[in-house]
Design a protein that fits this description.
With 211 residues, the chain is an alpha/beta fold. The chain has a single domain (3-143, 162-170), classed as TIM Barrel. Helix content is 23%, strand content 24%. Strands 3-1-2-4-5-6-7-8-9 form a 9-stranded mixed sheet. 37% of the residues are buried. Bound molecules: iron/sulfur cluster. The site of iron/sulfur cluster (SF4) has 12 residues, from loops.
């Protein structure tokens, strides 16, 4: 079943289930430190135990909002960069949203588990694979950035198995799972020193106490 059949109420992407939108600083990954406007869409069936956005999982809590309103709200801020996140945003047709933001000369970044087919057009795709529901094979080649969450030392093998599927230019990040950060970070530091193709990503927005 495709996006249109699954969510007819979204009218092909003219509406989207918005959780929240806000202007902040991108805290993690390649674009860390950059001012960005976040658009968070609701609904996710991946089910990561450590998810820090569990309130977004239930799509029914987030009535569809017109893309025109989502875009108008974004344009009220000076942000040049827009991050589409979730939840899992690729559950929905994103072509209309991306088209409108591109018309407005914004650069568009996607944060995704890659577990659904790609829609929309992005300037930067951060693929963050999850064991519960791994990325679709065809999505690896779209990734500009691979960001693997490390919860325990066994996850390094999972990170490498994902890395093998990405392109050679893909930036590679290991990010400690926040609640286990103190314990796992020394292991990540050691691993990156041994495997310098990888970089460390920290959730700096949590240290800065910003959303
Ligand atoms: S894919 Fe993202 S939003 Fe979904 S459960 Fe995992 S961390 Fe949470």
């Amino acid at each position: 079943m495709n996006h249109l059949e699954r969510f007819p109420e979204l009218k092909g992407g003219l509406l989207l289930p918005l959780v929240e939108s806000f202007y902040t600083i991108q805290g993690e990954g390649y674009h860390t430190g950059k001012a960005a406007y976040f658009i968070r869409l609701g609904g996710c069936d991946v089910g990561c135990s450590w998810c820090d956005a569990k309130e977004t999982w239930n799509l029914r809590k987030f009535p569809p909002v017109e893309v025109e309103k989502i875009v108008a709200d974004a344009l009220a801020y000076p942000a040049r960069s827009i991050v589409i996140t979730g939840g899992e945003p690729l559950r929905y047709p994103l072509d209309i949203l991306c088209g409108r933001l591109t018309e407005e000369n914004r650069e568009i970044f996607l944060e995704t588990s890659g577990s659904e087919p790609l829609t929309g057009r992005f300037d930067w795709i951060c693929l963050s694979p999850k064991k519960n529901k791994p990325p679709l094979k065809e999505n690896y080649r779209f990734a500009h950035e691979l960001k693997v969450i490390i919860e325990e030392p066994e996850d390094f093998a999972w990170a490498e198995s994902n890395r093998e599927k990405t392109g050679t230019d893909c930036k590679l990040y290991l990010q400690p799972e926040w609640s286990r950060s103190e314990k796992i970070l020394p292991e990540i530091i050691g691993y990156v020193k041994e495997h310098p193709a990888w970089n460390i990503s920290l959730q700096t927005h949590k240290y800065m106490k910003i959303p």
